[in-house]
């Protein structure tokens, strides 16, 4: 386990910093690659859909979790 890593991303033309564990950063990058988009675009999409009372780092973690669960469910349904 490693401590969260702070990285800068651009959302709507503004730079912001987000602290996430490396595993989440890696998965977000892979999700962006699979969608043929940039990490910044994916983060902006999550940011635009999160409730005002949920922090961006939390929203990104929950997004990764939901996407991985969906992928597993689809894989299990195909088996």
UniProtKB/TrEMBL annotation:
<feature type="domain" description="Ribbon-helix-helix">
    <location>
        <begin position="4"/>
        <end position="67"/>
    </location>
</feature>
<protein>
    <recommendedName>
        <fullName>Ribbon-helix-helix domain-containing protein</fullName>
    </recommendedName>
</protein>
<dbReference type="InterPro" id="IPR027373">
    <property type="entry name" value="RHH_dom"/>
</dbReference>
<dbReference type="InterPro" id="IPR038268">
    <property type="entry name" value="RHH_sf"/>
</dbReference>
<dbReference type="Pfam" id="PF13467">
    <property type="entry name" value="RHH_4"/>
</dbReference>
